[in-house]
Each structure stands twice: as C-alpha cells, then as structure tokens.
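Weekly structure sync, notes
Attendees: PL (lead), two postdocs, one rotation student
Agenda item 3: pending single-chain targets
PL asked that the sequence for the first pending target be pasted directly into the notes so everyone works from the same version. It is reproduced below exactly as submitted, 79 residues in total.
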Amino acid sequence: MPVAIGLSPQERQVLNSLAVPPPIEAMVADGRLVLDDQQARDLRERVLDRLPVVGFDANYALTDEGRVLDGLSDKLFIP
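Predicted structure, written out during the meeting:
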C-alpha cells in the first residue's frame, strides 16, 4: 500500500544527495513523497546508513544533516 510523506526542503535536499534511483523528485506528487512499503524500507535503510557517517560532530551531537536524517528515519518507518 503506498504511503505519502510530506517533506521539507531540507529533507528533499538530503534525500536527493543519497542518489536513490529513481530520483526523489520522480517520486513526488502534490508535494509529498509517494512510496510503497518496500521503497520506504529501502530508503530508510539508506538514511540510517548515512546517519553515522555525517550525522554527528566530534562531540557526538547531531549535526544539521543528522537532525534531518533522524527525522527522515522516523517518517520512513513502516511497522
């Protein structure tokens, strides 16, 4: 079943930087990211893989990109 997720401009930018095929913009309809359950799980996995790489500073505090990635991981969670 498709899910539609609202994205902020920062979230779109971060998702586009993940170079996900097809491009994120191709999956946006009416300003919302439309994915099936498997696409959401796959995209969440990519987000979570990126989080430890760029998401924390030297003091282990979330960076700006880390906050965006953390929020995206919540939005993309499919039980």
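Discussion points:
- The longest helix spans residues 37-54.
- The chain has one domain: 3-75.
Action: rotation student to compare against the earlier draft before next sync.
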